[in-house]
Amino acid sequence: MKQQNQWILLMSTSIVSFMSTIDASIVNIAIPKMSRDLNVLNNQAEWIVSVYLVLICVLLLFFGKLSDQIGRVRIFQIGTLIFVLGSLFCGLSVNLPMILGSRVVQALGASMTMATNFSIITDIFPPSRHGLALGVNSSFVQIGNIAGPGVGGLILTWFNWHFIFFVNVPIGIIAYILGHHFFPHTPLQRHQVKIDLPGFLAYAAMVVSFFVMIFWGQVVGFTDLRIVGLLVLTAFLVAGFILIEHRVSEPMIELRVFHNLGFSFGILSAMLVYACGYFNNVIMPFYLQDRLLLSSAAAGVILMAVPLLNIFSAPTGGYIADRIGAEKVSFYALFIFLVPEVIFILVRPQWSIIWLIVGLAMFGTANGAFQNNPMIMGNAAPEFQGIAGSIAALGRNLGMAIGLALATSLLYFGISQQGGKRITTYPDAHPDWFVDGMHFAYQVALGMILVAICLLAVVLKRKKKAE
């Protein structure tokens, strides 16, 4: 394949990656307006975010396995069209059931593209350029993950929330046309599709049980017997899924892929980083708009410091990763994360806004330099590239969903500690309680980054010993 075509296809897959990822976070800042327009409570409107993330997590491995059998490009292109259609329906929605149904369609398409984009890129580019190519794709994915509140705030300044979804339609169509023209066309092979249905059902039940536990636990408390029961059920489903995967001839996940410590710890560290990124998506818009009393436009501009720096650091990190290894680059990037986390732990409303911008900019720099995709895909054997890409995308979405749940739970726990009672909304009469709750949440985020540093330190030590 010509080098020019490689880069066109990289842009096509990366644009779709950006749209499908940003749609997990961009809705957060629009929830208050959407709840008013749709005449529903805020906690009901939150399902517009949750149903998208949960369904993607359920379907990713299914489409990863299916793409290995009928073709990754075919699944990716069909997924792009379904995602565009879902975006159009979301923009046209006028009530909660309609938009939830549209988000299901959107998530179906997004899971098809997320399950295949990494393996398509590793197929297109030679191994010597995987770091750079995946680094460019990572910049789009990571920007999509962290730019949602900023982009959403800017859109809502001039347009209504429907345009958050409408903007995907023309961009998605262009990406599909580029892919249709430049992707290599292979005839559909007529062979039996083998899907591990018992494994998939156990996995789907496990994911749904886990997220119901997380989101319901935020409402009734995590010590409630019903939540404890869901935790036990999730543990049984995990054990059942592993047992099924060991016994079937065509498992949903070839568990041998996790025997590589670099792959397993790469997934875990990526989940931790994406979870920390979601703390900014959830907490920072509240801090900027409700505590500092900035407009949504001003908040959006400030939050754009993260993706703007990410744009430059991700491809640079990928370029360096091709020379010294993705694990080393990611390990060093984790230390950069420590600076913004400390700023967010200490920042006060009396501080200059410059401190917050510096913290967000450094977070964007570290986030881009963290080369999770090259690290994960580079540690997966060639025969596992398809499912490895799906697991990498699953780790990212699990991290985002866990970050969403953790950020809100920790924030309100910290606020409740200050208030001496259970509080699950912004404390208008005591705004400083919110700041204390924010500091508590970011202390946990700092701890998560330290855990990720320890994981990659083990990987690097073992790699050095093997060499």
Automatic annotation (TrEMBL):
<keyword id="KW-0472">Membrane</keyword>
<feature type="transmembrane region" description="Helical">
    <location>
        <begin position="353"/>
        <end position="370"/>
    </location>
</feature>
<feature type="transmembrane region" description="Helical">
    <location>
        <begin position="329"/>
        <end position="347"/>
    </location>
</feature>
<feature type="transmembrane region" description="Helical">
    <location>
        <begin position="47"/>
        <end position="63"/>
    </location>
</feature>
<dbReference type="GO" id="GO:0005886">
    <property type="term" value="C:plasma membrane"/>
</dbReference>
<dbReference type="InterPro" id="IPR036259">
    <property type="entry name" value="MFS_trans_sf"/>
</dbReference>
<feature type="transmembrane region" description="Helical">
    <location>
        <begin position="225"/>
        <end position="245"/>
    </location>
</feature>
<feature type="transmembrane region" description="Helical">
    <location>
        <begin position="7"/>
        <end position="27"/>
    </location>
</feature>
<feature type="transmembrane region" description="Helical">
    <location>
        <begin position="257"/>
        <end position="280"/>
    </location>
</feature>
<feature type="domain" description="Major facilitator superfamily (MFS) profile">
    <location>
        <begin position="9"/>
        <end position="464"/>
    </location>
</feature>
<feature type="transmembrane region" description="Helical">
    <location>
        <begin position="104"/>
        <end position="125"/>
    </location>
</feature>
<feature type="transmembrane region" description="Helical">
    <location>
        <begin position="132"/>
        <end position="155"/>
    </location>
</feature>
<dbReference type="Pfam" id="PF07690">
    <property type="entry name" value="MFS_1"/>
</dbReference>
<dbReference type="InterPro" id="IPR011701">
    <property type="entry name" value="MFS"/>
</dbReference>
<dbReference type="InterPro" id="IPR020846">
    <property type="entry name" value="MFS_dom"/>
</dbReference>
<feature type="transmembrane region" description="Helical">
    <location>
        <begin position="75"/>
        <end position="98"/>
    </location>
</feature>
<feature type="transmembrane region" description="Helical">
    <location>
        <begin position="391"/>
        <end position="415"/>
    </location>
</feature>
<feature type="transmembrane region" description="Helical">
    <location>
        <begin position="161"/>
        <end position="179"/>
    </location>
</feature>
<keyword id="KW-0812">Transmembrane</keyword>
<feature type="transmembrane region" description="Helical">
    <location>
        <begin position="440"/>
        <end position="460"/>
    </location>
</feature>
<keyword id="KW-1133">Transmembrane helix</keyword>
<protein>
    <submittedName>
        <fullName>Transporter, major facilitator family protein</fullName>
    </submittedName>
</protein>
<dbReference type="GO" id="GO:0022857">
    <property type="term" value="F:transmembrane transporter activity"/>
</dbReference>
<feature type="transmembrane region" description="Helical">
    <location>
        <begin position="200"/>
        <end position="219"/>
    </location>
</feature>
<keyword id="KW-0813">Transport</keyword>
<feature type="transmembrane region" description="Helical">
    <location>
        <begin position="292"/>
        <end position="317"/>
    </location>
</feature>
